[in-house]
Structure formats: C-alpha cells, structure tokens
Amino acid sequence: MIKRYFLPRQLHPFAWWGWALALAVAASSTTNPLLLAGMIAVACLVTLARRANSPWAKAFKLYLFLGLFIVVLRVGFRIIFGGGDGPTILFTLPEVPLPVWVRGIRLLGPVSLEAVLTGLYDGLRLATIIICVGAANALANPKKLLASLPGALYELGTVMVVAVSALPQLGDSLQRVSRARKLRSAPHARTRRQRLGVVETIIVPVLSDALERSLALAASMDVRGYGRAGSASARDRAATLGFGVASMALLAVWSYRHLAAAPDLFIWRVPVLSTLLLIAGVAAAVAALRVSGRTVRRTQYRPIRWRLAETITVGTGIAAAALVQWIATTGDATALFPAVYPFRWPELTGPLLAVLVIAALPAFVTPAPSAPAQRRAEA
Known about the structure:
Blueprint: H1 2-5, H2 13-28, H3 33-50, H4 55-58, H5 60-80, E1 89-92, E2 110-112, H6 113-139, H7 142-148, H8 154-164, H9 166-184, H10 192-223, H11 234-260, E3 266-267, E4 270-271, H12 272-292, H13 308-329, H14 350-359, H15 362-365, H16 371-378
Antiparallel strand pairs: 1-2, 3-4
Organism: Tessaracoccus lubricantis
Pfam family, one: CbiQ
Subcellular location: Membrane
C-alpha cells in the first residue's frame, strides 16, 4: 500500500495552489525575518523536490530574483525617503532640500537602523508571498489547472492560464536565445553600439518569442473549445444570478463585520455570526458555480484524481497557516512581529519551527513527479 502511494505521478494542481496560498497567508501574518526566510527556504525545498521538467517549473528562479529585487527596492525607498525615523543613526547622506509646499517628505539625510529594518521586514514579507505564488506556478501544470476548473470559470481560467504562463514562457525564451548566442560565439559588448546590439539580439527576440508562445497557447485553447459555453435556460440564469447576488451580499456583510470588529457571540473563541455568514456566502458561491457550470459540456483526457497525497498537501499548508494565526491570537504575538522601536532581535521559537516543519512535509510525504518527466529532468 505504501509503495503504491509513492508511485511517481503528477499531483492535482489545486493541491499545490492550496498549499502555496496557505503558506502565503501565513507569510502575510508575520514580519519575523527568520520565519519569512524559513518559508522561502521551504518553498524552494518543495519546489526543487517535486517540480517536473517543464518551462513553468524552470521559471521559479525568476520569482527568486523578483523577490530579491523587491527587498532591495523597499529598503532603498526607506533610505531615500525618510530614512531617519529612529534614534539609532547608521550613517548620514547629504540631504536634498525640497520646496516648502512639499511637507512630510525628505530626500536622503540621516539613515536609521529602525527605518532600514522596517523596509527590510516589509519587503521580505511581500517577497515571500510572491515566491509562494511562484512555487505554485512551478509545481502545478497550468493546462491541467485549466482543465480541472469548474465549467463556470472556464472563460476566466483561460485568461488566467495565459497570464500565468507568460513569465515562464519569458524565462524559457531567454534560455533559448542565450544558448543561440553562445552557439554563434557572439562577442562581448564593449562600445555603446555593441551594447545596443545586445539589446536588439536578446531583449527584443525574448519578448517577441514569449508573446508569440502565449498567443499560440491562447489560440490552441480556443481551437479546442476552451471557454465556450452552451445554452442556458431562463431558470438556470435566474438561479445563477440569485445565488451570485446572495453570495456577494453575505460575503460583503462578513467582510464589514470582520474589518470593523463588530460585537459577536463567541463559542470557544469562535465568532458564531461571522462564521455563519462566511459559510453561507461560500455555499451560495459554490451553488452559483455549480448551476452555471451545467451549461458547459466538456470532457477531459486522463483527468488527475484527487487522492490522499493531495489532501495531505493542502492539509499541511492549512495547518501551517492555522498555527500562525493561533500564535497571533493566543500565543506570543511578539514572536511574529519583532519590535523595531526599540530594536529587538527576532527569535525562532518552537511553535514557529513547527510551522516550517509542517509546511515542508510535501517535499517528503508526496509522490515524486511522473517517471518520464523525472528522466528528462535528470538528463
């Protein structure tokens, strides 16, 4: 039974997206740089262990570079605009005088440790969320993701697949153009004219090739009937509209109560009214999708079944996010939000280590990618 469970196969794309989004929710609930760096390491570990040989899988490093760029940009903005917020001054830059009517903005000047740390924590949190999304994009097959979507979301799914596959196509095009330049033994750019030639021979072919491949993907999906809807009766349209309006109204009321911290009846620290509104809104949305999906008639070649490995994958992500929320409400919240004023060294406590261990389980307790894809990756 255990050997059959670990037979190489491709996991359901919804499982990887559920795990990654849950990890992103956990990352959005903390500014602890040690925990955020651990989540990035977990995302890299799971991606390297369970990705296949495909263009979208190879583009994961682009998300890492994007995350690094976000951190550097966020810290740079804190240094350039108002970097002196704090008593611990690291260094002083020559301040640029601004007009009187520009109040509250300062260019350069003193740079404090507190301002740099604030920019670092915020940038690292956003970078972690983006890397989690990149991990989902590298692990899940976008075509299988579109094929697994409900019929009511097929038109939106087509747009999403083309948009999500644009960055992987860009990375694949960059690799192919770089290999072609190496085979041609292109000389190194020394003069300005040669540098402009590099732009013409690398950037322009990469962008045009990525655009053409994305358009070809959209055209192939249109030819195969993706996004086409059948006929719907007046009763189905009325039911879809009613369930949709009810879902938006219930979720809007729940959002207002949640953001406004409205009084509620608590049972075991669970808000009863807000929970009922959330459940009713989600149920109405599912009913609307189910009724609307009746108009789409489609078949799927060799669909990916939802099995125990998918449940474990999503469960580990949800458990990690739930543990972070539990620490924020009932545990030591200072571990999730280390103090900057005054500065306090961040700590990685036992519960936070448990979050990382739980989130990293899919790298070990899920089947490896399919055997042909794995052999191509090793080659």
